[in-house]
Write a structure and sequence with these properties.
Helices cover 36% and strands 18% of the residues. It has 13 helices and 16 strands. The termini are far apart.
């Protein structure tokens, strides 16, 4: 459990952050104007946590699914201080053409992160974009370039960096040197999260623009796995479990240990067990990210039992003086030999934010992550006010996402890859370099084309 003094310490920091945000809000004559692109489950979760930490005015919502869009409009009108109904759009380009937004949240499926994020910063907005930032490496590079060119603040939704008990573990264990020399890290996910059905093609539901939803991705036959929330079954829209779950844990480890780019990346795996599913993502995969003097290893299996049922998704950091186990729910430090075991748990704030308990589907969020999203939003708002870099700046999002994409490419090609961030190429591998950019379906233009 978190110690009382640690809770008070974290609570004091959160209070100061909240006071800082309120002070800037009071200094403004009008609340920040916010738009959301992608009003599905996590879009609503992110937006409602933003509303919890600052009385912003949500003026615009965009989605290609009319049912989700109308639902989000009603939700926002009921929860924001003004009670106003936001404007509703089916095309993000029309929403951004108004050029009246201070903040844009991009909570679309992964294949639609790059173009709206770049369009939003070009329209003068600061952006919160969900992870992973891109489906191919050069999309992510173009997003970073656009943010820097327009001098906009861009926070990526990798909220492990703002998770109270993980911040405590970093400060209390890693920064205090309790691990000693760290030379190996294991990251993993054993959730049975891969779709295992094989549905037949069908017509998209009424009010859902499947052509626009597909956008630059290949146009697959529509099935009940396509939308909503189950699109991660297909590599056309994302990067499988590596792009969804590894990116969180790799980014958490990079942040905690202050790691940059790995020197080399290797991966192997495939569909080894769940062969009857329509899904084309791997059910088993291993990846190794080689940093100087340190390997970070990833493993996922969407079948069978986890080695440690208490840590089905997490990271284990090994040092010569102790071991640190991290998950979204808790952490544990186990010393080597004599020493004090340390532990902490996710911070729950039900008394202050009862919505964390009372919200039901389709808005229900894992309760342990609510405080992390609020912390992430506060950090985002402070970076906007200071014009500084947020904790999960777009460059950090680019590094973590690109590493996961490169792991999939290494598995596809059957060889280890060495990426050069300066030239944005794979050293000595023209074939891999060509695969850093996916083909875009017409009429959409890849952002690397300028």
């Amino acid at each position: 459990m978190l110690r009382r003094r640690d809770v008070l310490k974290w609570g004091a920091a959160a209070t100061l952050a909240a006071l800082h945000t309120r002070a800037f809000a009071a200094a403004r004559e009008k609340p920040r104007r916010v738009g959301l692109i992608g009003t599905g489950w996590y879009g609503k979760c992110d937006l409602t946590r933003l509303l919890q930490v600052e009385p912003v005015e949500v003026v615009s919502l965009c989605d290609v699914d009319r049912r989700l869009l109308d639902e989000a409009g009603q939700l926002v009108a009921a929860r924001q201080a003004s009670g106003r109904q936001p404007r509703l759009y089916a095309d993000y380009r029309q929403m951004l053409a108004e050029k009246d937004l201070d903040i844009v949240l991009v909570d679309t499926p992964d294949h639609w992160h790059a173009l709206p994020m770049i369009a939003a910063v070009n329209a003068g907005a600061d952006v919160f974009v969900q992870k992973p930032i891109s489906v191919d490496v050069l999309e992510g590079a173009a997003m970073l370039d656009a943010a820097r060119r327009q001098q906009r603040v861009v926070q990526v939704g990798m909220q492990r960096r703002s998770t109270p008990h993980l911040i405590e573990a970093r400060d209390r264990v890693i920064r205090e040197g309790l691990l000693g020399k760290v030379a190996h890290v294991e990251t993993y996910c054993y959730y049975h999260m891969r779709a295992n059905s094989n549905p037949q093609p069908m017509n998209p539901p009424e009010g859902f623009d499947y052509e626009m939803w597909t956008g630059p991705a290949p146009l697959r036959p529509y099935t009940e796995l396509t939308h909503p929330r189950t699109w991660r079954a297909f590599m056309e829209y994302g990067n499988g479990i590596v792009g969804d779950m590894c990116v969180h844990m790799l980014d958490m480890v990079r942040w905690a240990l202050d790691l940059g780019w790995p020197r080399r990346i290797a991966s192997s795996g495939g569909i080894l067990v769940q062969k009857d599913s329509l899904a084309n993502i791997t059910d088993t995969q291993h990846a190794t990210f080689e940093f100087d003097g340190l390997n970070v290893v990833w493993t996922h299996r969407s079948w069978g039992a986890p080695p440690d049922p208490e840590y089905p998704w997490g990271a284990t950091i090994y040092g010569d003086r102790g071991t640190l186990k991290l998950s979204v729910q808790k952490y544990e430090f186990i010393p080597q030999g004599r020493g004090t075991r340390l532990q902490g748990q996710a911070v729950l704030e039900f008394d202050k934010y009862p919505d964390d308990v009372t919200d039901r589907e389709p808005l229900r969020l894992e309760q342990h992550v609510a405080s992390a999203i609020r912390g992430h939003m506060r950090d985002f708002l402070q970076a906007i006010d200071s014009r500084g870099r947020p904790v999960s700046d777009i460059e950090q999002g680019y590094v973590s996402a690109a590493c996961c994409i490169l792991a999939n490419l290494a598995m596809q090609l059957g060889r280890t890859l060495e990426f050069d961030p300066a030239t944005r190429t794979v050293r000595g591998d023209d074939e891999a370099t060509r695969l850093l950019r996916r083909p875009y379906r017409q009429p959409w233009q890849h952002p690397a084309d300028g």
